[in-house]
Amino acid sequence: MTHLREMRLICVVLAMCGVGSELACGQVWVDHQKTESLEVFSEFRVDVDGIVKELQAVQREVQTLLELSGDNQNVQLILFKSPASYRAYLSSRIPEGLKRRAIFYKHGGLFQIYAYRHAELTVDLRHEYTHALLHQSLPYVPLWIDEGLAEFMEERPETREKSSRLAGMKWRCRSGWQPKLERLEQIPAASAMTAAHYRDSWAWVHYLMNDSTDTRLMLKDYLQAISAGEAPGAFSEWAVQRETEVVKRIGSYFRRFRISLR
C-alpha cells in the first residue's frame, strides 16, 4: 500500500511538471484550481471565482465589440505572493518579465499569464488576458493593437470615462497634437515600446472603439481579415482606403471628449 501511495504521489508530481515547461518541479502552490477556461497556480489563497468572473467579462466585451473570443483553450494563471518570488521564478525562464508586474507568455499551444499579488492585480490580469484572447484568435497581432487593446481593456467599462489617461490625452490634443499611427506601426518589438508608445496605442484603440460605429467596424473588419489568413497591410493605409479622414480625426475626437466629473 505504501509503495502504491508513493507511486501515486510521483505521478502527481510528474503531471504537474508536464504542465508547460515553465512550471518547475518543487514549486509550492498554495492554491491550484482548474475551471473550464482557466487553470490557476498560486502561492497564496486566491478568489478563483472572482478572477473567472472578471476575465469572463473581458472575453464577453471583446466578443461583443470585435467578435473575437479566443478558441476556448485553457489559459494558465501563475500567481506569486511577492515581487521577489515572481522575479526569482522568472529570472531563468522568462527574463523579459523581470521589469514588469505581469507578463503574457505563449509557447506553441501553451498560454500563460505570470503576475504577483499587489493592489492592482486585477488590472494586470485583465490586461494580460486580453493578450491571450487576441493570440488565441489571430495568427498574428499588430503590436500597437495588441498593447493598445490590452491597455483599453484593463479598465472596466464603467471607469473608462474617468480615466486619467483620457484627461491627459484631451489636454495634449488641445494644441493640435495627435498620436501618430504610422510611428506606432514601425515599432519593431514590444521591447522597444516606451510609455509614450503604450499611451498612444491606447489612444488609437480608444478612438476606434468609441468614435462611431464605422470606426469600430473598421477595426473589427481589419482583425477579421487577419483571422481569415489575409495580409491586410498597415492599418493606417487599409483604413484610409475605406474612409479618407479616419486617420486625421483622432485629435478632434479627444478635444471634444467630455470628461466625467462623477
For this entry, give a set of tags.
five-stranded mixed sheet; 5 strands; Glutaredoxin; disordered N terminus; DUF1570 domain-containing protein
3D structure, described in words:
The protein has 262 residues and is of the alpha/beta class. The protein contains 11 helices and 5 strands. A 5-stranded mixed beta sheet has the order 1-2-3-5-4. The chain has helices at 2-17, 48-66, 83-90, 121-137, 143-153, 164-173, 181-185, 195-210, 213-227, 235-240, 250-255; strands spanning 31-34, 38-42, 75-80, 102-107, 110-116. Helices cover 49% and strands 11% of the residues. Mean pLDDT is 87; it is low at 1-22. The longest helix is centred in the N-terminal third of the chain and has 19 residues, at 48-66. It folds into 2 domains: 27-137, Collagenase ColT, N-terminal domain (Glutaredoxin); 147-255, no CATH class. Helix 5 crosses helix 8 (195-210). The protein is globular, with a radius of gyration of 20 Å. This is DUF1570 domain-containing protein. It comes from Fuerstiella marisgermanici.
